[in-house]
């Protein structure tokens, strides 16, 4: 019976391995892992989950492995979490350690992630029996069905699976068609996650409790630095009523104070956002929520419907204040449209937040200060700053790979290393990251007259010292560059 066949689900995103995420302390349950759990339970398997998010190392995982004695381990990464999409080194190392432990215990081991889609060989040669390439929900279920019957899923041509043939040759089966009808998928298995550690972490650090949901998968746009190993440019959306019903369940049973919608582009159309507002009214479900979107999608009508349905914060992919850089990125937006959208959001009482990216190939100092000026002029609620990170499968990666060194992935989300030969060095961009954050913090503090003057004075000095240090670093860079040109 399938109910006698035990499947253990886990993931490799431990807070203790990522210093930045420890400082932020905004942990979310592994949503995609919970989705996989609900699908496998619907198939009739005996499904357990080990969530190591708050574990101090892998001892908790080893204990779960020994007590459950699964027939199959699936390290199923949360593909809705941007940390997982970054293919970080610490997560790969942890996933492989989990696989090796499972195989020692007699269980088969599978990994499903963006990283396995990009680099199946690195997992298959170092611990995993199989890896899933692409969208993993249905593939995981079909792999379980094959293994339960003692059939090799690789030989059975299960789509979306990769493994090693006799002789060490890696075989990747045909790609699995992407799920079109997201409304046919069961709700994530929220009952399988221990929610209280998440609630406590948020309450202690931020004073409220946030949970994550998704209303769609993928992004139809073609920014040439954006890695899309799972869904490519495919975009699929859940019915608005389906999302509202899950939100009502989550509110009743888990009592969050806030929802983070992890979609790349929430809603995507005015019509869907209007339907979502209506569906929430029918469900009598209302909770503050945050989304990610684009400036060119947020029409006045969409913003109005977002506000009325509970949206309090929107993160926009500004990336750069330089039109030249935006065009090079194939971003298809302008700084002017972004400024208008920020203004419209503020007028509606919604907090605008900006994602900023420095270090794109060809970016000059004037482009950097166009971006700094964009932040100063729009005065967003928050910013998230990164440096350009080339991941396989992107046009960016193809354009810079010949100048990349031995390090191909960041080790954690605070790495911010320049992995290719860019305009400036890693220390320059890290300093720029800290100074611009500090300046925005100072702007917010000075806008609030109730803040402590001594704190503002200290922060003002930090900002001024930071810009002076950046000036010295830039001057040193120019001198070195001139010296290299002279040698040539």
Description:
The chain contains 18 helices and 15 strands. It is of the alpha/beta class and 488 residues long. The protein has two domains: 171 residues, Rossmann fold (3-Layer(aba) Sandwich), CATH 3.40.50; 239 residues, TIM Barrel. The strands form three sheets. A seven-stranded mixed β-sheet has the order 2-1-3-4-5-6-7, sandwiched between helices. Strands 8-11-12-13-14-15 form a six-stranded parallel β-sheet. It has a two-stranded antiparallel ribbon with strand order 9-10. Strand 14, helix 15 and strand 15 form a beta-alpha-beta unit. The longest helix has 35 residues. It is globular and about 65 Å long. The C terminus is likely disordered.
Structural class: alpha/beta
CATH superfamily membership of the largest domain, which one? Aldolase class I
Kindly give the count of domains.
2
CATH architecture of the largest domain: Alpha-Beta Barrel
- Overall shape: it is globular
Strand order of the largest sheet: 2-1-3-4-5-6-7
Layout: helices, strands, pairs:
Blueprint: E1 6-10, H1 19-24, H2 31-42, E2 46-50, H3 59-68, E3 72-76, H4 82-85, H5 89-104, E4 108-112, H6 114-118, H7 120-124, E5 130-132, H8 137-148, E6 161-164, E7 170-172, H9 196-206, E8 210-213, E9 216-218, E10 235-237, H10 240-254, E11 258-261, H11 270-283, E12 289-293, H12 300-309, E13 311-319, H13 323-329, H14 335-347, E14 351-358, H15 365-378, E15 382-387, H16 395-400, H17 426-447, H18 453-487
Helix pairs in contact: 2-8, 10-11, 11-12, 17-18
């Amino acid at each position: 019976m399938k109910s006698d066949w035990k499947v253990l689900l886990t993931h490799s995103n431990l807070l203790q391995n990522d210093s930045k995420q420890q400082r932020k302390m905004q942990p979310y349950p592994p949503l995609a892992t919970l989705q996989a759990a609900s699908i496998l339970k619907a198939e009739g398997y005996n499904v357990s989950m080990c969530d190591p998010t708050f574990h101090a190392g892998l001892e908790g995982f080893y204990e779960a492995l020994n007590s459950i004695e699964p027939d199959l381990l699936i390290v199923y990464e949360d593909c809705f979490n941007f940390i997982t999409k970054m293919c970080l080194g610490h997560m790969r190392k942890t996933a492989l350690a989990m696989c090796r432990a499972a195989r020692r215990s007699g269980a088969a081991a599978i990994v499903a992630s963006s990283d396995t889609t990009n680099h199946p060989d690195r997992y298959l040669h170092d611990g995993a029996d199989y890896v899933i390439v692409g969208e993993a929900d249905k593939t995981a279920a079909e792999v379980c069905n094959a293994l339960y019957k003692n059939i090799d899923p690789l030989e059975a041509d299960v789509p979306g699976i990769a493994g090693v043939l006799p002789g060490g040759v890696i075989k990747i089966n045909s790609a699995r068609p992407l799920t079109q009808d997201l409304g046919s998928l069961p709700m994530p298995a929220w009952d399988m996650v221990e929610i209280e550690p998440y609630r406590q972490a948020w309450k202690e650090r931020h004073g409220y409790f946030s949970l994550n949901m998704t209303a769609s998968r993928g992004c139809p746009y073609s920014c040439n630095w954006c890695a899309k190993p799972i869904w490519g440019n495919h975009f699929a959306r859940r019915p608005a009523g389906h999302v509202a019903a899950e939100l009502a369940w989550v509110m009743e049973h888990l009592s969050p104070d806030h929802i983070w919608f992890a979609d790349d582009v929430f809603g995507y159309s005015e019509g869907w956002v209007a339907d979502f507002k209506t569906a929430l009214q029918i469900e009598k479900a209302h909770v503050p929520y945050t989304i990610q979107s684009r400036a060119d999608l947020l029409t006045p009508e969409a913003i109005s419907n977002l506000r009325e349905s509970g949206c309090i914060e929107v993160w926009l992919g500004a990336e750069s204040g330089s039109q030249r850089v935006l065009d090079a990125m194939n971003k298809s937006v302008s700084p002017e449209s972004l400024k208008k959208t920020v203004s419209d959001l503020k007028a509606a009482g919604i907090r605008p937040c900006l994602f900023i990216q420095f270090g794109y190939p060809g970016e000059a100092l004037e482009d950097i200060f166009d971006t700094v000026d964009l932040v100063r002029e729009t005065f967003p609620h928050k910013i998230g700053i990164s440096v350009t990170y080339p991941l396989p499968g992107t046009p960016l990666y193809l354009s810079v790979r010949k100048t990349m060194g031995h390090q191909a992935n960041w080790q954690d989300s605070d790495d911010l290393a320049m992995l290719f030969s860019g305009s400036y060095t890693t220390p320059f961009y890290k300093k720029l990251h800290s100074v611009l954050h500090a300046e925005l913090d100072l702007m917010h503090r000075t806008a609030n007259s109730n803040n402590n003057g001594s704190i503002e004075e200290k922060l003002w000095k930090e900002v001024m010292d930071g810009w002076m240090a950046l000036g010295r670093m830039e001057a040193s860079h120019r001198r070195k560059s001139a010296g290299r040109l002279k040698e040539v």
